[in-house]
Write a structure and sequence with these properties.
With 229 residues, this protein is an alpha+beta fold. It is built from four helices and 13 strands. The strands form three sheets. Strands 1-3-2-6-5-4 form a six-stranded mixed barrel. Strands 10-7-9-12 form a four-stranded mixed beta sheet, with no helix packed on it. A three-stranded antiparallel beta sheet has the order 8-13-11, with no helix packed on it.
Amino acid sequence: MENYKAVIRKKSEGSNKGLLKKGLVPGIIYGKGTEPKKIAFEDKILKKLMSSGSFYTKIIDLEIDGELEKILPKDLQYHPVTDRLIHFDFLRVKDDTKVTVEVPVEFLNQDICPGIKKGGVLNLVRRLVELVSNANQIPEKLIFDLKESEIGDAVKISNINLPEGVTPTITDRDFVIATLVPPTVEVEETKTEEDSEEGKEETSEEKDKTEENKEKPDDKKEEKKEESK
């Protein structure tokens, strides 16, 4: 695992704004039973780690003044106007530290999924699943294979293989992560066709009524002619 370097924040280095101008992001490391430590981390390296796709689930080895710290990213703060990253919180961990993390779900074989090939739609109920895990056992992602899934199937947490010792924070029910729902477009098209057929029927009925109304005045004229005779 690659080591990254951070520096202790000192008053002599100026304010947080000054650090940001130098390309450094101020932050803090904290952990249960340990003293918080104010540090600064290089902005471009932090952004590189953030773009990895597993930023909140991967332990980072951080070297601070010659000492190695194992940390887990917990929170990022952005400027309300510019959206620039202005602060971070890192959790100091050991291999057996229990942590709560949100892990993304990946669905395999969507291209050959029977339900999707029939027009079904994969409806994601949860894109992230919150788990409790030892720091050294955090899965980067949860995986479910859709190769045998049909329309009407539901993917629940019990359908996903979790690493040993890793548990969901929701324990009172077998919650749904995704469902394969019927296509909605066909239903809308059917309704449109039905509406158009009804419209045609109504139009023909209106025409019949119009024809009847046209005939009635002629009948009255014939009756008047007979009376005059």
